[in-house]
Amino acid sequence: MVEVPAQQRSTRQRRAVSAILDDLDGFASAQQIHDKLSHRGEKVGLSTVYRNLQALVDAAQVDMIRADDGEVLYRRCNAGHHHHHLVCRSCGRTVEVSGSAIERWAEAVAAEHAFVEVEHTIEVFGTCSSCAAR
Amino acid sequence: MVEVPAQQRSTRQRRAVSAILDDLDGFASAQQIHDKLSHRGEKVGLSTVYRNLQALVDAAQVDMIRADDGEVLYRRCNAGHHHHHLVCRSCGRTVEVSGSAIERWAEAVAAEHAFVEVEHTIEVFGTCSSCAAR
DNA sequence: GACTTCTGTGAGAACGGTTGTCAAAACGAT
DNA sequence: ATCGTTTTGACAACCGTTCTCACAGAAGTC
Q: B132 to chain A, minimum CA–CA distance in Å?
């Protein structure tokens, strides 16, 4: 009758998505991840990829950013703390960066103009050395 | 025969979109602008609104940012220099801010990891004092 | 294993913002 | 007024994402 809170089940698809994220060292879109799954021979529906990525984002296991064209990109992210990204716009390779100076700047700016409940998005895009070499 | 490079023509629609932007003091989406035009009795096609906004962005007369949900927001922006925004997520009211410290930080971070052709997006969202009062 | 229950899946439809199409309208120069 | 070119707008197409819902398949129980 009164049963356990209902856990997440371990399914083949869930494991496959998670495995792809582990092998990725940069951001990738849901559709790119779906393609990679196909290439591995894993058949996973696109909806399922989206659902599981969203679940991982909710569980704070995956970071989510928005590319210039509006597409959403995902990346495994263990770090529990607040941070930003330096992303290669060509290969997606990513470095996590954090800067307390930035956080303080954002808060100061907001306070100066009496804004509350402040959030900020800071992402740095560039071309990494190996991509620039080509 | 060989004629002038072809100027932008002054059309009713173009003027109407521009007028709306002048009356706006925050960011608004293309569709919101389209609605405002309708309320004024100006009949302008949605495609035309998008086209003219894009043209203004290209002409550096309008700033463009992407909201959390991916929607694109526009705002008249005279300032020629590089800057960022402090945006009220409730009413769209916007303050232009610039911080050389931030620019230097972004460049330093990129240089440290040998990234080139660096760009950054920094937007601060919050609730402005008048919206917070409600 | 067999049975049950409830979560997860997937094919496809729907959605929402944006861009493309193309014939008709209209600007501006003559 | 006329002409050549740009601009417009109704509508379709696009594209990433979310929704729907019948069915598959975890995990618990006996």
A: 7
